Amino acid sequence: MNVITSLDLINIKLPKKFRGISAGLLVHPASINSKIEHASQLLLKSSKINIKAFFGPQHGIFGHTQDNMIEWKGFADHKTGIQVYSLYGDTRKPLPEMLKDIDVFLIDLQDIGARYYTFIWTMDLCMQACNEQNKAVIVLDRPNPINGITIEGTVLDPNYSSFVGLKPLPIRHGMTIGEIGGYIKDLFYEGLDYHVIKMKGWKRQMWYDNTGLPWVMPSPNMPTLDTAIVYPGMCLLEGTLLSEGRGTTRPFEIFGAPFIEPDSLIEKLTKLKLEGVFFRPLWFEPTFQKYAGIICGGAQIHITDRNKFKPFKTAVAIIKAVHDLYPEHQLWRQPPYEYETIKMPFDILCGTDQIRNYIENGESLKNMEQWWTEQSLKFNRDIRKRFLLYE
Questions:
Q1: In this structure, are 124 and 267 located in the same domain?
Q2: What's this model's pTM, rounded to 2 decimal places?
Q3: Is 386 inside any structural domain?
Q4: What integer pLDDT is reported at residue 1 of this predicted model?
């Protein structure tokens, strides 16, 4: 085993002041140790901590809600009777009554390395609630599956803050969830009693398949590492009327729409000479979500070199190509989307309206990339580097 998870280490790394006290636990299906044992069962049996409540993010504590934006309700765990609180529904920030019986809030979530993957923002809201209620927070750190070096994409403008981005980060942020928590704590919740239990053996250059750890889907439409690699770009299609492949067996790797002719689109994309990627023409029929039961033309993304592949640039190129080829078709999805009822879904995903404006006004992909690269490099230089915990 190359990497030892924080969950494997908690019994020896848990700070002494927290041993034996009452805790809440935020988990999902990928909250497992190296033996594929779930955090909830391990910590219930642990003599080091006293679990009083469970919390679950988007898709549910069991990952049981298949599609995005499907809320779920809390319940009493049938094995233990312990209350399970939903943080994706009427409540996304823990209420004071949810925290009243606990002294420390444990967070064990597998992030994907993209700003709009909502688990980091559930963590943010839990940190905010704990700061207000004088509860400590401990994050059990996990690998960034798409490596901890590469950053790409726009940095969130706070005017476009939403549940797919509450704080400024590049879209591909190159951080672990524990490092993001440290950044949020220091800049926004300075008084919070915040701790990270670090992994052992993780190096920043590692992709998830270098860690030796088993892959468990952190959400229903994140079935493989391949999905995670394309996600920092292809999730942008959620803000359009293009299918991002939900309702197929290769979500985010497959994309298209009923009006697209695959060969024409691929010809246009091929001229851009995007690195590390090959587009294969495809016809597909989603079983749910956009265009369910309707045949769509499009493509499947095949990654030929993941170290050269730029997911955000690739997705912007796809959206721009569709916009230019099919100007007669409405491209942009309208709100509501992820609890935002006014701003455009594409804009809150980008964290700015500038990318949409660039596409509509015919700006070149080269100039767009130069603009967002300057943003991400500045964030890395001024902020990100201060919070990195691993070499």
A1: no
A2: 0.97
A3: no
A4: 60
